[in-house]
Amino acid sequence: MPDDNLVKISDLSFAYDERPILDGINMEIPRGKVVAIMGGSGCGKTTLLRLIGGQLKPTRGSVQVDGRAVDRMGHEELYALRRRMGMLFQFGALFTDVSVFDNVAFQLREHTDLPEELIRDMTLMKLNAVGLRGAHARMPGELSGGMARRVALARAIALDPMLIMYDEPFTGLDPISLGIIGQLIRKLNDALGATSIMVTHDIHESLMIVDYIYFMSAGRVVAQGTPDEIRASQDPFVHQFVNAEADGPVPFHVAAPSFGQELLRGVGNG
Amino acid sequence: MARGLLDLVEQLGHRLNEKFIRLGFATRFFFTLLLFSGQSFRRPFLTVREVYFSGVLSLLIISVSGLFVGLVLGLQGYETLQRYGSSEALGILVALSLTRELGPVVAALLFASRAGSSVTAEIGLMKATEQLTAMDMMAVNPIARVVAPRFWGGVISMPILAALFSAMGIFGGYLIGVVFIGVDEGAFWSQMQASVDFRLDILNGVIKSFVFGVAVALIAVFEGYDSVPTAEGVSRAITRTVVTSALAILALDFVLTSFMFRGL
Amino acid sequence: MNRKLIDLWVGIFVAIGIAAFLFLALKVGNMSSANFAETYVVQAKFDNIGGLKVRAPVKSAGVVVGRVADIRFDPENYQAVVALKLESRYQFPKDTFASILTSGLLGEQYVGLDVGGDDRMLAAGDVIAKTQSAVVLEKLISQFLFNKASEGAEQK
């Protein structure tokens, strides 16, 4: 029996040039679970996904997926691993020059030598799973935001990945589409026996579907727990986040000298 | 005052430095591109498709422009030559100017603005909408799958378009000179054949257009791939493609011409 | 846009390119003559080649029979050595006379071959013994003026 954790992140730090983004992150993502990583905009959540997918190299620490360090893999090895990963991008990132069907069939055609009839069956099966088999001939430009997200989801699971990553799957969706995507994330994870990591700031939808939540702020993990623990938490940060308060541990104002002083100085200079 | 001048010089140095760094990036990008080209050649249709988009779709503009350049050359050339009583040399004038210079250069300039800009836009938009990142996450190398076919499509199309441009131009010169003005047809062609050398003039013209093709295609894919992934960034990248291509074509033309025809 | 149509168009496109190239090579350039024919090279030494250039035509009786392939300076005899590339279908006697001529008053210079009467023919690597140098216009004019001047002096 291998490690119970599919993804293990230890002491992970990352900086763009001199600007630190992540600072000493530790996380464990158990197999078969749906885990949410939450935090305000710009706290490094998306960077974290990029590090797990091996698109960025950490400045310190390591990311292990299925027991092997992603940051020490060569090009071939990394690509072999990515075939077992699926990723849903924030706005879907569908290929705009080909149809919905070709989008979902993309990986099957690139990575397998299956005959076209089999690819057709598999593609329609994936599209059926997200309820869009009827839209297979449309172009991505003809889809609504929610439908595009579902197509991207079908594309992410085309090769039955062991790990599915979601980058802000709920952004810009109406409440109905939002509910549909949420349900699909849970359902597909369980049906495929996969593990899911979801980066989001939509707390209420997440609390309904995930098994575990990490809260991040300013590049650090500040709180974690199961949905029940989070709801009951008295941690000021979690409290601010869950209740969407404007001011708290995450301040409303960007750090600045006092307003009165600034006004007076403006007069002096003018 | 001196302070401002110093700042200006410093800024100039900084800009120059940035240009060199970008040139370094472009060179490294070129080698990566060559490295992954093998992968994309295993599926020739990817490149054939790009030959369609950059070559076939440029056919109209190239042949019409070639024809008009030939017509103008015929008119202007006749006006000048007949002053010296040598209007039979019109064929030589039209053919040499087209095969040596105008064919490769003007076709490449048109190609840069027609096909180069659209390649930059396409790659830039794919980058801005995370399509390239998505592809990379799906274990498909975007350089092999998206960039290399567009590069080779341009490299293949360019010499064909330049040859077509020259041929159409010579036909235009023939139309004006022989059909409308009435220069002797036999003299037009025979003088042309006697003075246009296959290796020196025509092959060198083809070599030029090939070099321009590599330059324009590389600039187009690099600017697209290197663009800032926003709407504004992509539109700037398109402008840079056209401007840089034009400068590169004219500078390379000077270098190539001095090697080919002066034997430097 | 389906795949077959794209294939077809690209095929047409490449065919147009080949056609344009052949037009340039055969109709515009001199590819149709000389270049495919087999050739042999003979040498000719001249005291002065004037403005003769590599690739200048070699003519006999006004017909182009070859091209100048190479021009060197021979430091031992202080002569110009001109390599003539002649088409194999034209054979010339050993005592053929080579001279550097000008087409028109100020036109391009070329090598003219005047056929001799020898039974043996020139072979590759042979040297044409009898040559006549280029007429250099400046020399001609100064000679003419000099003669005129001396004539004038005699008459006085």
Which labels suit this protein?
heterotrimer; B: 264 residues; mainly alpha; 9 helices; C: 156 residues; alpha/beta; 2 domains; 8-stranded mixed β-sheet; 8 strands; 32% strand
Structural commentary:
The complex is a heterotrimer of chains A (270), B (264) and C (156). With 270 residues, chain A is α/β, with parallel strands linked by helices. Chain A contains 10 helices and 10 strands. Chain A has a domain at 5-81 and 195-269: Rossmann fold. In chain A, helix 3 packs across helix 4 and helix 4 crosses helix 5 (145-156). Chain A is globular and about 70 Å long. Chain B has one domain. In chain C, a hairpin with a 4-residue loop joins strand 3 (63-74) and strand 4. Chain B binds chain C through residues 45, 48-49, 51-52, 55-56, 59, 95, 99, 157, 159-161, 163-164, 166-168, 170, 189, 192-194, 196-198, 200-202, 205-206, and chain C through 1, 3, 6-7, 9-10, 12-14, 16-17, 19-21, 23-25, 27-33, 35, 55.
Task: Write a concise synopsis of the structure shown.
The complex is a heterotrimer of chains A (270), B (264) and C (156). With 270 residues, chain A is an alpha/beta fold.
Q: What is the alpha-carbon Rg of chain B in Å?
A: 22 Å
Overall pLDDT of chain B: 90
Q: Report the span from N to C terminus of chain B.
A: 45 Å
Largest sheet of chain B: none
Count of helical regions of chain C: 2
The total count of helices of chain B amounts to 9
The structural class of chain B is mainly alpha
Number of strands of chain C: 8
Indicate the overall shape of chain C: elongated
Could you name the ranges of chain C where pLDDT drops below 50 across 5 or more consecutive residues?
none
Strand content of chain C: 25-35%
- The quaternary state of the protein chains shown equals heterotrimer
Q: Strand order across the biggest sheet of chain C?
A: 7-1-4-3-2-6-5-8
Silhouette of chain B? globular
Radius of gyration of chain C: 23 Å
Instruction: Name the poorly predicted regions of chain B.
Output: none
Q: Biggest sheet of chain C, in brief?
A: 8 strands, mixed
SSE order and pairing:
The complex is a heterotrimer of chains A (270), B (264) and C (156).
Chain A: E1 5-16, E2 19-30, E3 34-38, H1 45-52, E4 60-65, E5 68-69, H2 75-82, E6 85-88, H3 100-111, H4 116-129, H5 145-156, E7 163-167, H6 175-192, E8 195-200, H7 203-209, E9 212-217, E10 220-225, H8 227-232, H9 236-242, H10 259-269
Parallel strand pairs in A: 3-8, 3-9, 6-7, 7-8
Antiparallel strand pairs in A: 1-2, 1-4, 4-5, 9-10
Chain B: H1 2-41, H2 44-54, H3 59-83, H4 90-128, H5 131-137, H6 142-181, H7 185-195, H8 198-225, H9 231-262
Helix pairs in contact in B: 1-6, 2-6, 3-4, 3-6, 4-6, 4-7, 4-8, 4-9, 6-8, 8-9
Chain C: H1 3-28, E1 39-46, E2 57-60, E3 63-74, E4 79-87, E5 97-102, E6 109-114, E7 127-128, E8 130-132, H2 137-155
Parallel strand pairs in C: 1-7, 2-6, 5-8
Antiparallel strand pairs in C: 1-4, 2-3, 3-4, 5-6
